[in-house]
Design goal:
Blueprint lengths: L1 H22 L3 E6 L2 E3 L5 E9 L7 E10 L3 E10 L9 E11 L6 E7 L1 E2 L10 E9 L2 E11 L5 E11 L3 H23 L5
Parallel strand pairs: 1-4
Antiparallel strand pairs: 2-3, 3-11, 4-10, 5-9, 5-11, 6-7, 6-10, 8-9
Keywords: Signal
InterPro entries: Ice-binding_C (IPR013424)
Protein name: FxDxF family PEP-CTERM protein
Length: 196
């Protein structure tokens, strides 16, 4: 009888350990961004994720991919929202970054641009991160959000990305030439005597 209860206790303890291990697994997702053109060669995109109570204790890595064929400037931000589980911030964002990657291997190319943690102070503030980068070359890029689901309510985060094309050097040359012609015209106008 003791052997049966000992085996049963071991099975119950093993099942409990397996269920706790399953809840604390890492969640990894890669999703292509849906972009909306801004009418001047750039685009905007929104991204985010939602976590349920079944993911409590899990860490997560969400990767949002996009590509662009011209040099560009980019800025992005991400903010968490959370239910107010007593004594706990339900969703904790631990990092936010932008990087170029190889679409075949998903390997990071070069150095990632780290986001700035702008989370406020006080009791369980909402996480807020942002990043900006200028003069990026064309290619495949990804936004990465890392974090942890802490509270019993799960949680969610949302973000936005704005991409603006960088004018090519020829465009700057035409702009400078146009400004030079305006300057010449203004100087000529000053030199020509006015008749009254």
């Amino acid at each position: 009888m003791k052997l049966k209860s000992l085996v049963l206790s071991a099975l119950i303890a093993g099942a409990a350990a397996v269920s706790q291990g399953a809840a604390a697994q890492a969640i990894d997702r890669t999703v292509p961004l849906v972009t909306a053109g801004d009418g001047v060669g750039g685009f905007n995109a929104h991204f985010g994720d939602t976590f349920t109570a079944s993911t409590v204790g899990s860490t997560f890595t969400d990767i949002f991919t996009f590509n662009i064929g011209t040099p560009f400037d980019a800025s992005a931000s991400v903010t968490s929202s959370f239910l107010n589980t007593p004594q706990t911030k339900d969703l904790l964002i631990t990092s936010f970054s932008l990087y170029r990657y190889n679409p075949g291997t998903m390997a990071v190319l070069g150095t990632a641009i780290a986001g700035i943690n702008e989370t406020g102070f006080g009791s369980h503030p909402t996480d807020s991160w942002s990043l900006s980068s200028y003069g990026l070359t064309s290619g495949y890029y990804a936004l990465r959000v890392d974090g942890q689901v802490l509270g019993t309510g799960g949680g969610a985060f949302g973000g936005d990305l704005t991409v603006s094309p960088v004018p090519e050097p020829a465009t700057y040359g035409m702009l400078l030439a146009g400004l030079g012609l305006l300057g010449v015209a203004a100087t000529r106008r000053k030199l020509v005597p006015r008749r009254i």
